[in-house]
Known about the structure:
The protein is mostly helical. Helix content is about 80%, strand content about 0%. The radius of gyration is 25 Å and the shape is elongated.
Amino acid sequence: MQEDVFQMYLEEIKEIESCDAAENETLLRQFREGNRAVKDRLVEGNLKLVLEIVRDYLGRGVPGGDLVQEANMALLLAVGEYEEGIFEDYVRDKVKDALQAAVEDQSREQEAAEKVLGQVNRLKDVSQEMAKELGREASVEELADRMRLTGDEVREIMKLTLDAMSVVGN
């Protein structure tokens, strides 16, 4: 689904004519003079520039549609914040910063999810092992002691497991 949205976006922007440097300068001057109506053309005319940058970030863990959304938001902000210098360079920097942040956020979320999954699997294994040793279910405190965690941490892992099971079960 996400890739379908990305492909539709690619098709839509094929029809849009890009701004060249001269048009950007004219539009930026008009925008700074208070003509807010030119903002749409300024944004629209730089969508292909933004898409070029997005292509460099494909395959880094963030869906293409999400990358486009982040890049377009950065473009909107760049238009509103731009003061001086080469506009295209300013847009590139803003978009790259936004996309890099999105990739890093996704990576952190993935690492956190993997850590939680590892804890859940470890709790399951330790719980089964202790049940065999003790001939009964281990208490939260016994599990915590074996796993070198606090009772609250073990309860949190158990809660995550139950929450995940209720989502899968529904």
